Input
Amino acid sequence: MEDGSEFSQSVAQIVQRLRGSSLHSQLERQAKDCLHRPEIKLESLKEDVRNFLKTSGWEKKLQNAVYRELHVSVYLGSAAETPSRLPLISPQLPTCRPKAPAEHLKEPLAYMRKAQASWEKRVLKSLNSMSTELEVPLARKRPAAEQKELANKWNEMGTDEPDLSRFRPVYAPKDFLEVLISLRNPNHDSCEDVSTRSHWGLIQVPLNVRDVPQLRKAYSELSLSMGQLGIDDVGNIHPDLFEGDYVHVGKKVVAEQDSAAAQQYSRRGCPTGLRADLWALILNSTNQPQDVMHYEQLKAGVIQHGLLVDNLVYKDVKLTASNDDYYFVFEDFLYQVLLCFSRDTAVLEHFKYNSATPPKSFVHGELQRTAFVLFFFAVHLFETSACCPNRPDCCLCSVPRG
Amino acid sequence: MAKVRDGRSCIRYKCGLINTIQDVLRQRPNWVEVKDDEEWDFNWCDVGWLRENFDHTYMEEHVRINHFRNHYELTRKNLMVKNLKRYQKNLERDFGRTEAARCDFFPSTFALPSEYHLFVEEFNRSPGSTWIMKPVGKSQGKGIFLFRKLKQIMDWKKDSSRSEEQKDVENYVAQRYIENPYLINGRKFDLRVYVLVTSYVPLKVWLYRDGFARFSSTRFSLTTIDDKYMHLTNVSVQKTAPDYNPEKGCKWQMQQLRRYLTAKHGREMIETLFKEMDNIFVRSLQSVQKVIINDKHCIELYGYDILLDQNLKPWLIEVNASPSHTHSSQEDYDMKYRLLEDTLNVVDMEGRLTGKEKRVGGYDLMWNNGPVYREDVNLQTFGSLCFTANTHLGCVNDREKQLCQLLKPFPPQRKL
Output
């Protein structure tokens, strides 16, 4: 548990992040608008407005936002804070030490930083050489005709059949695997004895993982004594024994619009019919007008400027999704999401707590920082998820499979 | 003579088809194949054999055969529509329009040329609509085409390449094409559902939990109605499409489809959809109940083709008496194997069932001279209004477990 000063610091940080957000302005507006309501009395103004916000569901929205920030802020440590991220690997720095540079806080292990830097350089080099070889710029403005065509088939990009045979993958999975396998902790003497341990797996970096009792505690909701969907709702088990009640509770959670409750509930499975709502709640993703606007902006970005990686994205999705019996359903969505995602500067925030450098490219002098975010996100996702299985803010981790 | 009841003797079977059913019969304990002229207890024949031999075949009481003599009343497109229309008219006469509306699950259909004028009337009433021409007796998508102008049929009638079919000019139907099918990522699909009828009077119907959705390999578009491959979802037609990938079957198991639809639309809406499908199965069978010759030796496994539209309304496209037992993948083979094995379990030549079962393997009893409910109706539940139909299409099929609990194991097999 954090002590008093750290707690108030966290609170201040969360308030800082939420201040000026659209939720903040919406709350203010709601508070103002409710003043004319009959139940708001001047003598108990503060109390009544609070109650109104509670009953109208706005307090719950604020709660969900705070809950979300709690997860993120753990990783957005300021330099003064003791990093509680990567608790399993990095040593706890005592606060009397001088401040470490930001890079060192994001990734305290020198050998990791080195490996990351060299991998980044390699991928970037491959991409640049592809760009030169194929005479395709990393980023370019699309001609008007192309923009129009893209806008027209935005909702069914899968119908397009462009010739992408010139584009090769930037790296093969084998290359990446080799890099991972070759990671070595210089402080860990692993070459001495050829014991059975050194042959257990390809990854040589010692990863601190939970043992069975710890796993049992962490995943207590999956214990044999607890009902779960997928196990206790199939076949001849009567729905009254588990499924009926569980689905009923699920509906209540969705009705309450409580993000924390949704996350807790889903540990024992999401009923198929409620899955979409529950996941939207867990991720606290709403369809506010400003979100729609943000999406339209990203879409406009995609239409106006083409990136070299767009072709790679397209080719990859085409090969994987369109031929697969089950993933073909998502083919069109994947194009839309991935192309927009790779232009979303919000993703750059990730680099505040993840030690990578989003590479830059210039289009007519304008800094295009977003170009390769996607690639590196995926790379670092692997690294971080291997070390820290508990990264709830990684939305790629959270996307339900299938 | 095979003694069936005590299960100690063997059951002699005849099988005219070379596909999955052969494997199922051969691998069933104590079942032996007989030669052409020998007597049989069970016959899995094709409709050709039936037509030629049924009428002069004497069958003892315990003998079973896999078709009803005049199944075509349900399985030939023109007759099915004729029976459905008559049934619907009778419902309206006896119970009013609301009840008759429960039969609005088949698209407007006309037999040609006998109903040509009625067809033209309907055609002119809906300008710009698309229609589909189908030969009544053929399967696997043969001879089907789409049209929007009457001129296109005139041309087709005059087409000399059809000369060998001149005498079959009676045997076509023109059907209103469903222009707003439910699409998944732009692709059209239809459903194949298996329904087993063990008796028409009284009507006893079993519904299999497994089934599949067959996807078109190209995206749906109304602008190219000449593209045969896009509109027809029969696997046989898809197999010849240029971008057909023989390794991928473009088929989903029913469970997969049900899960997808439930995730997308919510549980209640999809339960309603499946209830409406139950309604299609039962009413289509009721429409031919009085016409089919109810021979107690006969059972029949039907393959129903259902199409969903964008409003999640199910439409009956056709009923097949000889649903294909050839398989397009291992998964497909396994499903058809289970289906046929359970069909034999329901027929129960071995006499292991009591006759009161509501479920046998993957089959749920859907209709037994009246609706069958999941709940056991007794004095306590009688007042309750909450009855759910005993159907589980697209639900988990834990048949092995259920069969273990239900059936006595087969007696030790005798070496031949």
